[in-house]
Amino acid sequence: MDAANPPTVSRREVFRAGAAIAVAGVAATKAQTAHGAAVSLSPGATVLFQGDSITYAGRLFNKQIANDFQGLGCGYALITTAQLMDTYPTLRIQCHNRGISGNAISDLANRWQEDALDLEPDLLSILVGVNDVWYKLSGKSDGTVDSYESGYRELLERTRAALSETTLVVCEPFVFRTGSVGDSWMPEINAHRAAAKRVADEAGAIWVPYQTAFNDAITEANPVEYWSSDGVHPTLAGHALMARTWLDATGLAK
Amino acid sequence: MDAANPPTVSRREVFRAGAAIAVAGVAATKAQTAHGAAVSLSPGATVLFQGDSITYAGRLFNKQIANDFQGLGCGYALITTAQLMDTYPTLRIQCHNRGISGNAISDLANRWQEDALDLEPDLLSILVGVNDVWYKLSGKSDGTVDSYESGYRELLERTRAALSETTLVVCEPFVFRTGSVGDSWMPEINAHRAAAKRVADEAGAIWVPYQTAFNDAITEANPVEYWSSDGVHPTLAGHALMARTWLDATGLAK
Question: What's the number of domains chain A is made of?
């Protein structure tokens, strides 16, 4: 080998070579969702959870290796990863969380290269939108539902251009009518939900219907406060529901 | 009411009165395990996970309210709680973690009143033993398997005397042959496992067979390192297996 001109091998190829040895002979899982969308996880697949504080969930920024408890935070990313590792132990999947509190769609775009594309995920899950709503309502930004939609579309197109084989998962933004979330939020979140659904469909992404799932879960025995205390962040019960809804939507549930 | 002599009402009674209102009409779950042991969770039931660093899993000590992500740490206590909250939403269970790193059976005894009995758990799960083994092998204590067994027996008898209705769950201590865990550990952990099983049976406790479950899980495709990197602490995959094994053993799995 010419040391001055080493052959170009991507991190993914190097990683997959190792993974292929570790799980030789193990077939990928191919799950079929209720809506016909297929999610295939290959041995050694990298899964990335991206988003705002709901995804972040207290993760430690200095723990960026895959499948690390503290690096995954204590929310739906951790619970989902735990379920995936338990359901598909022979696949040796590699899960990461790169959610950051307060992020709106423009914040994701600003850090997308290093915090998403460089990780070369085989499955990329995104949950963003509630801060776009909040910043608009509070006057903290001049963003609109149109700029959210166009920003989200650009992000997915950029992702598809860089990672043509990556499975995209778009999660429905959601709120609860409690805490700081009042009536004025509802038409805004509904418009942002619809925008996220449009870009998801255009990109051929899996759709995870969180607002719908939470609306169904709110009952007399389990009112809003069981799922969220502040209207934006889920309780642990809410994160557990998110993990189950995600696994159902992707067809990766047990 | 005489303010100077208020009627004596325990915290549990106060709490249960509230829980009864919140979940009026919801029947308790009664699950039957494969071994005939029944676990019943009543509405508002308090569940407590006690033990050492495996239970602790990075929890924050200033977050002691029930079902708090950070108060539960990022290990099997969190994953199990999430599963319980998702499976039995109408029961409104209240889960706590009071594991502390480095604890042996004598450390639990020293803090049992405030960190276990005072919480009045309806279900109390204990995992302790690996530090007893470690301290014995390293000469850090003069503990023996006999003192572990008698200490554990005393702890359960004391618990039964204070909380006659509490369901006890005793988790099998375990190690993995990797990291700092060498051959000399195996006869010791085996003796401690057997001792824990004896006191569990005497106390009528549910037994969670962790060492057995991990031994079964270790395969060519998923060697020891998938489950533990240091021989003592599980990986996230290991914690996920622990949560599933606990739910199966108690009969509380979905």
Answer: 1
In a domain, A60, yes or no: yes
Task: Show residues of chain B in contact with A226, CB under 8 Å.
Answer: 89, 92
The minimal CB distance from B236 to the residues A67, A75, A240 is found for A67
Q: Which residue has the tokens 């602790």?
A: B56
In contact, B40 and B167? CB cutoff 8 Å: yes
Instruction: Tell me, yes or no, whether A13 lies in a domain.
Output: no
Give the integer Cα–Cα distance in Å for A68 and B235: 8
Average confidence (pLDDT) over A93-117 = 98
pLDDT for position A1: 36
Considering the domain boundaries, does residue A217 fall inside one? yes
DSSP E strands, A163-219: 167-171, 206-208
Average pLDDT over residues B212-236: 95
- Among residues of chain B, what percentage have pLDDT more than 70? 85
State phi, psi for A31 to the nearest 5 degrees: -105, 145
pLDDT class of B243 with cuts at 50, 70, 90:
very high
Q: Out of A35-44, B78-87, B233-242, which region has the weakest mean confidence (pLDDT)?
A: A35-44
Is pLDDT at B104 greater than 70 in this prediction? Answer: yes
Backbone CA torsion sign across B29, B171, B115, A58 = negative
Q: Name every chain B residue with its beta carbon within 8 A of the beta carbon of A83.
A: 240
Contact state of B67 with A237 under an 8 Å Cβ cutoff: yes
Residue A33 lies in a domain: no
User: What is the model's pLDDT at position A19?
Assistant: 39
pLDDT single digits (tens) A146-198: 999 999 999 999 999 999 999 999 999 999 999 999 999 999 999 999 999 99
**Cα nearest neighbour of B245 on chain A:** A86
Q: Which residues of B touch A235 (CB under 8 A)?
A: 67
Neighbouring CB atoms inside 10 A of A177's CB total 13
Residue B9 has pLDDT above 50, yes or no: no
Considering CB atoms only, which of B75, B89, B237 is closest to A226? B89
How far apart CA B14 and CA B10 sit, in angstroms, is 6
CB contact under 8 A, A69 and B239: yes
